Amino acid sequence: MHESLRHDAPARRRLTRRAALGWLGAGAAWSAIARAADGATLCIARPEQTEGPFFVDERLERADIRSDPATGVVAAGTPLTLVLAVGALRAPACAPLEGAIVDVWQCDAAGRYSDVRDGAGSTVGQRFLRGFLRTDARGEARFVTIVPGWYQGRAVHIHFRIAAPGASGRRNVFTSQLYFDEAFLDRVHAAGAYAGRRGRRLPNASDGLYRHGGRDLLLAPQAGDTGYTARFAVGLTS
Q: For FRET with 3, which of 146, 173, 181, 196 sits at 20 to 30 Å CA-CA?
């Protein structure tokens, strides 16, 4: 099933960071809210943003995306449990959407994406911090990852893509990015695998893509015993 989501572009991207930034665009920023008939369920249609150049369809169905499957090496960083709650907007109500395919991919604490070659070097053949899940009966996909690091030219972010059946049998694909509060990143990036890096992180307000809907894509991580947990709701229209 997931194989049908593969892109026509080559599986491994080979380009410079500067070329990668050229992929950025405004995207379609929009929002809407619908409540279930009992008023208990809230679906929020979030701004859509560009996929970017670093998506690779690895077909890795897994909840914990931190490791490289070939070596078992786990990406260093502060643990983050990311729950994406997907709902179907069917006015005047909404409902959890079961069976949607949710892809997540991001850079590591050093700002590297796996399985790509660019100006920062090559990680071709490695598959850390990538994976997909199908939403459960509650419409949720629960990933275990890390708080991302940063690289030059972008604010800190996590990519996600949701594919679900749409009207007339067509596939509905929603792609966007998630961001973090600056104060939260200041705390996390001051220690561990993030500390001691040269250069400065780009603030959200200086990121051209964030300025087009990023405020509606902010995560609110909550501290726990083994890291942080963040839940984010997305409503899809058919």
A: 146
